[in-house]
Amino acid sequence: MEISLNHTIVYCHDMIASARFYEKIFGFEFLKVWENFAVVKVNKTLSLDFRDKGTFTAQHYAFKVSEQQFDKILARIQQNNIAFGPGPENTSANEINHHYEGRGVYFKDPNQHLLEIITTDYILD
């Protein structure tokens, strides 16, 4: 069996608001609140489990998406007036990148986690 990531905990200030943000922007499914987590299904094998915490270090989460998904997610980012940019140090230029003959964009969630969507895998030599 191939190993796959099943879930990860995403610390946040408001787990319900965070789960709803990912549902609205990415189209993920907010399943339910389970114990101390707001569970969001990313795909058939991965969930993001949002958990409230007073202080935490912002993290980076990158999602590979299809060209059509990229267009839809970028449109939702723009409709919700979320700043975005072509790189992790430039999240407010309202531009995308075209690395590795694909498209990519960076933006932040309400908890300042750095989010990235890409259509092509990075080529690591």
UniProtKB/TrEMBL annotation:
InterPro entries: Glyas_Bleomycin-R_OHBP_Dase, Glyas_Fos-R_dOase_dom, VOC_core. It comes from the Bacteria. Pfam families: Glyoxalase. PROSITE patterns: VOC. Residues 4-120 form the VOC domain. This is VOC family protein. It comes from Thalassotalea fonticola.
